[in-house]
Design goal:
Layout: H1 21-24, H2 37-44, H3 54-57, H4 65-73, H5 77-87, H6 91-97, H7 109-112, H8 120-134, E1 149-153, H9 157-168, E2 172-176, H10 185-188, H11 197-209, E3 213-215, H12 226-232, E4 235-238, E5 244-245, E6 258-260, H13 261-273, H14 278-281, E7 291-295, H15 299-310, E8 315-319, H16 331-339, E9 343-345, E10 348-355, E11 359-372, E12 378-391, E13 394-397, E14 401-402, H17 406-410, E15 437-439, H18 442-445, H19 450-467
Parallel strand pairs: 1-2, 1-4, 2-3, 4-15, 6-13, 7-8, 7-13, 8-9
Antiparallel strand pairs: 5-14, 10-11, 11-12
Protein name: NAD(P)-dependent oxidoreductase
InterPro entries: DPD_II (IPR028261), FAD/NAD-bd_sf (IPR036188), FAD/NAD-binding_dom (IPR023753), GltD-like (IPR006006), Helical_ferredxn (IPR009051)
Domain FAD/NAD(P)-binding: 150-457
């Protein structure tokens, strides 16, 4: 181990080469180039192989990170992929979009000692991309078919992770989704500069080839009833995510040119697929030539500001009520946005909108951070007499998401929900108040990270398998 590993003292941390801001700001290609084999091995060799791997502990999937870093450093890439795939259904996706700076890399022991974290996410991406290129990603082939069927509502990360795991055990799986493409936010919510769509489509093809049935453009409650799905399957998993946008209820909020973040991002991604998007063609969801103000400070806000830059906005500003240190979005994404020309207006909160028929500006006020709340974060407070206006022709609200009222939309009787509208489910088995009905991902925990949805989907799949007679759920490895 000492020969190949523990190089963090002599070898500095390096990320894959990042495309120049002037170049990448004009297209939706991923901004990081691929590691070369020697560079991946070099960076993996910086791992200290510590006795208590906090990177693994703070990964929601508890990936065996030190093990596949060591294998990568030794040039045993196929084995590294097998170890990575054993705990993560979609490692090539997590390697691209997980906020590693807040999870595994942020907990790295050598980072805490001042040597700079291991570039875990970049190595994970390299391992899996290499596996696809070399043909190491084997088709899903259950050892034996089982007669039981499972219906999954929602083709997002939770639903797809559960489908993958259940199919490997031999269950018959059908996925129902309202959209025309599988992937949920992976397809329509996350821009291509973070996750190129062929990466998701490749996994979708693998799942379809495995015998999973996809019923797309199928809106539960309209095209098929929830009870019909229950009657058709031995178990049902709800993995719909949360898509209802939070709105800023303030003077002028009904003006044209004020749009929800997800509508804006979906339109951009559809255009990337070559779809006809009237609201983009007529300029409603197109930032070209406009002064754009994005309200919010999470990862969705970062996706919006960087998309607006690529669409040719005249200027892009992001209003956030706290300071940079308290930004909920990834600091890496903030830095990328700044490089590309986004201006952050810290400690500012919107109070309303100006305009006649269409928005012409966002009324805002300066904020100061006061006493800490129950979460430990300082509460923003208005600074008297500090009102100002940010001119804009497009205002994008990236204020988070809430669950839809599934009980009403689906006409479900007996499905318990929380006071926030999320589905109540057992935190271990993910079973809901309805027998044989499970729920996983954001529809249970609220808007969260893709990696948590993957974990929830896998756990729910294991619980469903146990209920249907599989005593020991299969491991997700190829």
């Amino acid at each position: 181990m000492a020969q190949k590993m523990l190089k963090f003292v002599s070898q500095s941390r390096e990320m894959p080469e990042k495309r120049a801001a002037q170049e990448r700001a004009h297209d939706f290609g991923e901004i990081y180039r691929e590691f070369a084999a020697a560079k991946a091995a070099e960076q993996a060799s910086r791992c200290s192989q510590c006795g208590v791997p906090f990177c693994q502990t703070h990964c929601p999937l508890h990936n065996n990170i030190p093990d596949w870093l060591k294998l990568t450093a030794e040039g045993r890439l196929k084995e590294a992929y097998e170890v990575s795939q054993a705990t993560n259904t979609f490692p090539e996706i997590c390697g691209r979009i997980c906020p590693q700076d807040r999870l595994c890399e942020g907990s790295c022991v050598i980072e805490q000692s001042g040597h700079g974290t291991v570039t875990i996410g970049a190595v994970e991406k390299y391992i899996t991309d290499t596996a696809w290129e070399e043909g190491w990603v084997a088709p899903i082939a259950p050892r034996a078919e089982r007669p039981e069927s499972v219906g999954i509502i929602g083709a997002g990360p939770a639903g797809l992770a559960a489908a993958d795991r259940l199919r490997r055990m031999g269950f018959q799986v059908t996925i129902y989704d309202r959209y025309d493409r599988s992937g949920g936010l992976l397809i329509y919510g996350i821009p291509g500069f973070k996750l190129e769509k062929h990466v998701v489509e490749r996994r979708n093809r693998q799942l379809e080839a495995a015998g999973i049935s996809f019923r797309m453009n199928c809106d539960v409650g309209r095209d098929i009833s929830f009870e019909a799905i229950r009657a058709a399957h031995d178990a049902v998993l709800i993995g719909t995510g949360v898509y209802k946008a939070r709105e800023l209820k303030a003077p002028g909020s009904g003006l044209g040119g004020i749009v929800p973040a997800l509508d804006y991002l979906t339109a951009s991604n559809r255009v990337g697929f070559g779809d006809d998007v009237p609201a983009f063609a007529d300029g409603t969801l197109n930032a070209e030539g406009k002064r754009v103000v994005v309200i919010g400070g999470g990862d969705t806000a970062m996706d919006c500001v960087r998309t607006a830059i690529r669409q040719g906005a005249k200027s892009v500003k992001c209003l956030y009520r706290r300071d940079r240190a308290n930004m909920p979005g990834s600091q890496r994404e903030v830095a990328n946005a700044e490089e590309e020309g986004v201006e952050f207006v810290w400690l500012s909160a919107p109070k309303g909108f100006l305009g006649e028929d269409r928005v012409s500006g966002v009324k805002a006020v300066r904020m100061a951070l006061g006493a800490a709340d129950v979460t430990g974060r300082q509460t923003p407070e208005e600074v008297a007499g500090s009102d100002f206006t940010e001119p804009c022709e497009l205002a994008i609200e990236a204020l988070g998401f809430e669950p839809e009222d599934l009980v009403r939309l689906w006409g479900v009787q007996g499905l318990e929900v929380s006071r926030w509208g999320t589905i109540k489910a057992d935190f271990r088995t993910h079973e809901t108040s309805l027998a044989g009905v499970y729920a996983a991902g954001d529809i249970v925990r609220g808007a969260s990270l893709v990696v948590w949805a993957i974990r929830d989907g896998c756990e729910a799949a294991d619980a469903i398998a146990a209920q249907l007679g599989v005593a020991r759920p299969a491991i997700a490895a190829e």
